[in-house]
């Protein structure tokens, strides 16, 4: 973090300098241009022969102007050179504050087989589909030979269009989408439809008494069918009608006009639509990248330490990190199991096994304990049982 702040200081200096140079340059050039235009006019447009200046004075005037242009150009070129100094200081600050020695972290074998490469490309493609950047999706698909059918793209395009409309406070596309997916949304207890109608009601409400008849018709047609599930909230909305005449701003219902309602509806829409499509709310690529930026400095440190002490062979375990990386809750998606006997995290090769008695240990621990026998004692309860009866647990 400190490294970023240090570089930011230099970047700020460059931006300030650039703005002031740009302003100064603009003023100098426009002054110069208007001066020359005035002079040109004076020299050319005078019709009165008495007014025309003798040629020696005209030459002097022009020479003087040329000298001034040259001076200003030299001055601007000097400022430009100084600016380069400030820009190169940013480069030096980046070199000083960020280590460029990432070579030791490289693991080329990760992407050596075709399957891994295709998986990575698919994750990247999905990321851009989520963002609605379909031209990039097409370009990557063409480059990698991965086929993305229109069918797959369609829901992403639709969702992005709806989100753009919501951000512009246009509820219609979202309401149409809800209408088309009502049954499936109801299955997942979504209250998106109510929230959209509520916002529409508030929108009418904020337009004052002129919208009274629309408000009442809207409440009858759209809110009434939702009374059974949102009784209290609808009562509140009806109560706000009392202040339609005097304005909602100075009433106890002023909170209804809060602009946050609009950002909330976008979040609810993203959450419910992703859930409907069986996708996580955040892009997996984003999450992996964010987690990576948190974990990377610590891993880089430990790798450099291992290299300097010549103990590089310590970190050889596949799919395992040499230290525990603490990540926020938002990075935790499923439970993990650590064997209480071997004190190791379970893996595909050594999965957790549930014993007859209900206690869980890793398969390696069970194999070691049973040692080929048909009887094993649970290390916890200690019920004697057949190790063959243990069942693998999947998280
Ligand atoms: Zn037990």
Automatic annotation (TrEMBL):
Keywords: Cytoplasm, Metal-binding, Zinc, Zinc-finger. It is found in: Cytoplasm. InterPro entries: CRA_dom, CTLH/CRA, CTLH_C, Fyv10_fam, ZF_RING_GID, Znf-RING_euk, Znf_RING/FYVE/PHD. A zinc finger (RING-Gid-type) spans 339-381. The keyword Zinc-finger applies. Residues 339-381 form the RING-Gid-type domain. GO terms for cellular component: cytoplasm; GID complex; nucleus. Residues 155-212 form the CTLH domain. PROSITE patterns: CTLH (PS50897), ZF_RING_GID (PS51867). GO terms for biological process: proteasome-mediated ubiquitin-dependent protein catabolic process. GO terms for molecular function: ubiquitin protein ligase activity; zinc ion binding. This is RING-Gid-type domain-containing protein.
